[in-house]
Specification:
By secondary structure, this protein is an alpha+beta fold. It has one domain: Metallo-beta-lactamase, Chain A (4-Layer Sandwich). The protein has 8 helices and 16 strands. It has a 7-stranded mixed sheet with strand order 1-2-3-4-5-8-9. The chain has a 7-stranded mixed sheet with strand order 10-11-12-13-14-15-16. A hairpin with a 2-residue loop joins β12 and β13 (221-225). The radius of gyration is 18 Å and the shape is globular. The chain starts with 11 loop residues before the first strand and ends with a strand.
Length: 295
């Protein structure tokens, strides 16, 4: 398991993307059941990719992306935040201690403060992606983590997060998003749109009905923040789909379409949950989705 220790990952990895600079921020780790993470894929296959611990959990990252453009500072997803209790952290294997969170430490390591963020894009509103929208202060009050930013999420995702049912309710915690809406800072977008020059969202449903991935284009380079469409490099094969996905056959088609574009245009693919591999490009000579790591 040594090679899969999330805690040993650097707080920040930085590279140029055209005229932009992107920073992969380490917002901490989590451990989730390997069977749930790989759905119908047998353990005999997935454990060769990511070994499980004694509780059948696999180590995962909560990797966020900070994008510097000439006119904006854009953060994509924000980890789990600091609002949850010890039992919750144990169940989901959350390792994100910091000041007040690991994400804030990573943001500072990249040279920025939370107040510098101008745009906050939530791919969806599950607690390990949008929990850092808000934080609990020393007095126990829930406050906005990025008070000067506009937050962006699909309108359908925000509505779905409020449709309480036994299958999804554990993933949607209202303190993670309702305070943003109440403050008038939540932008509910619909469909594939450009948020600002060079940064757009692309609907990639399946994990949730209104999940979105983020496309970053600058100069002659394109990157895609995959979020939970393809959470780790091990999930690149089309049928390797999480058991957490509410519409797995929709995920299949979302993956097929996006990976075809990624191969044809040599996109840099950014993995949110891979404990080791932050990003890479597909081998254009291979019909199967084989990753060429790009550090």
């Amino acid at each position: 398991m040594t090679s899969y220790e999330v805690k040993d990952q650097p707080l920040v990895l930085t590279r140029e993307l055209g005229n932009f600079r992107i920073h992969a921020l380490h917002a901490g780790g989590q451990k989730l059941d390997g069977g749930a993470m790989f759905g119908v894929v047998p353990k005999a296959l997935w454990e060769k990719k990511i070994p499980a611990d004694e509780r059948n959990r696999i180590p995962l990252a909560m990797r966020c992306l900070l994008v510097e453009t000439p006119d904006a500072l854009v953060l994509i997803d924000n980890g789990a935040g600091n609002k949850d209790g010890e039992k919750f952290r144990d169940i989901y294997g959350l390792e994100n201690a910091g000041s007040p969170t690991r994400l804030e430490d990573a943001l500072r390591a990249a040279g920025f403060q939370p107040d510098d963020v101008t745009h906050m894009i939530d791919t969806h509103l599950h607690f390990d992606h949008a929990g850092g929208n808000t934080f609990r202060d020393e007095d126990g009050q829930v406050r906005l983590s990025f008070p000067r930013a506009r937050y962006y999420v699909q309108r359908g995702e925000f509505e779905y997060a409020h449709w309480r049912n036994e299958r999804t309710q554990a993933s949607y915690l209202r303190d993670n998003f309702d305070p943003v809406h109440d403050a008038g800072l939540l932008e509910l977008v619909e469909g594939d749109i450009e948020i600002l020059p060079g940064i757009s969202v692309r609907r990639t449903p399946g994990h949730t009905p209104h999940h979105q991935s983020v496309i970053i284009r600058s100069g002659d380079e394109t990157a895609c923040f995959l979020a939970d469409l393809i959470p780790t490099a091990a999930h690149l094969p089309l049928p390797w789909i999480m058991g957490y996905d509410v519409e797995p056959l929709v995920t299949l088609e979302s993956k097929r379409s996006l990976l075809a574009a990624a191969r044809a245009e040599e996109w840099l693919l950014i993995f949110e949950h891979d404990a080791i591999v932050p990003w890479g490009r597909l081998d254009p000579e291979n019909e199967k989705p084989v990753l060429l790591q790009d550090r």
